[in-house]
């Protein structure tokens, strides 16, 4: 049986009633929009909370506190992962979700509106074309680090107001050691199994690259 929203409450026990309601609403909103515009595989939508929502929140187990006003870019957000779950968790942080496919951004906007998220902007644009600065860039399953880093290298604010220096937070699978070597980046691997006792993710690490 696939876990319900309770799995989110289990790992994030300090959620406010409003946040709990937003997480709970995803269970209706995503299947509705996914039937019209496919953003998540049919098989995976049944394990929405485990494979998408909790997985996205792995980033929040590594960066647990963010200063109000922090700006985060989600590159290749697809249907809103990891950006939407993170935006629920950090209502005082601004999230810019972008994707190169317009219909995916439609789903992101509909989901954000349906659950009342005020801290999300979503745009149909390639990451390389953006001309803004951010504190962090998050992403999940978009491309190899060596290709990804040049897209966003010039998009970081210089000042570090958060507990960890600005940088990339990437949920990424594949042969990461080889990828990190290829990218020549100074990257750290943080295992999701150190945050979550349930073993369920195809992608097992948050890759953190200070920038
Ligand atoms: C495999 S999907 C992952 C979607 C989402 N991050 C997730 O984990 O469910 C990769 C997404 O990256 C988007 N993408 C690829 N290259 C991009 C670029 N240069 N700028 C913005 N989005 C891009 C694609 O359109 C696609 O939606």
TrEMBL record:
InterPro entries, per database record: rRNA_ssu_MeTfrase_G, SAM-dependent_MTases_sf
Enzyme class: transferase
Keywords: Cytoplasm, Methyltransferase, rRNA processing, S-adenosyl-L-methionine, Transferase
Subcellular location: Cytoplasm
UniProt xrefs under Gene3D superfamilies: Vaccinia Virus protein VP39
Enzyme Commission code: 2.1.1.-
Signal peptide: none
Keyword Chaperone: no
PANTHER family: S-ADENOSYL-L-METHIONINE-DEPENDENT METHYLTRANSFERASES SUPERFAMILY PROTEIN
Protein task: Specifically methylates the N7 position of a guanine in 16S rRNA.
Membership in a protein family: Belongs to the methyltransferase superfamily. RNA methyltransferase RsmG family.
Protein name, as recorded: Ribosomal RNA small subunit methyltransferase G
Gene: rsmG
């Amino acid at each position: 049986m696939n876990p319900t929203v309770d799995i989110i409450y289990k790992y994030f026990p300090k959620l406010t009633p409003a946040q709990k309601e937003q997480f709970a609403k995803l269970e209706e909103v995503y299947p509705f929009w996914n039937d019209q515009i496919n953003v998540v595989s049919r098989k995976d939508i049944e394990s929405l909370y485990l494979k998408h929502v909790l997985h996205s929140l792995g980033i929040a187990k590594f960066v647990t506190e963010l200063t109000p006003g922090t700006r985060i870019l989600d590159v290749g957000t697809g249907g809103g992962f990891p950006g939407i779950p993170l935006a629920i968790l950090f209502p005082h942080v601004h999230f810019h979700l972008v994707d190169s496919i317009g219909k995916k951004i439609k789903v992101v906007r509909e989901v954000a509106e349906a659950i009342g998220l005020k801290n999300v902007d979503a745009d149909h644009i390639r990451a390389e074309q953006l001309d803004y600065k951010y504190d962090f860039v998050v992403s999940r399953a978009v491309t190899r680090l060596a290709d990804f880093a040049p897209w966003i290298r010039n998009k970081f604010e210089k000042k570090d107001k958060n507990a960890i220096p600005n940088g990339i937070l990437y949920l990424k699978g594949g042969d990461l050691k080889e990828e990190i070597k290829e990218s020549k980046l100074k990257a750290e691997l943080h295992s999701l199994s150190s945050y979550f006792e349930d073993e369920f993710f195809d992608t097992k690490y948050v890759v953190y690259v200070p920038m």
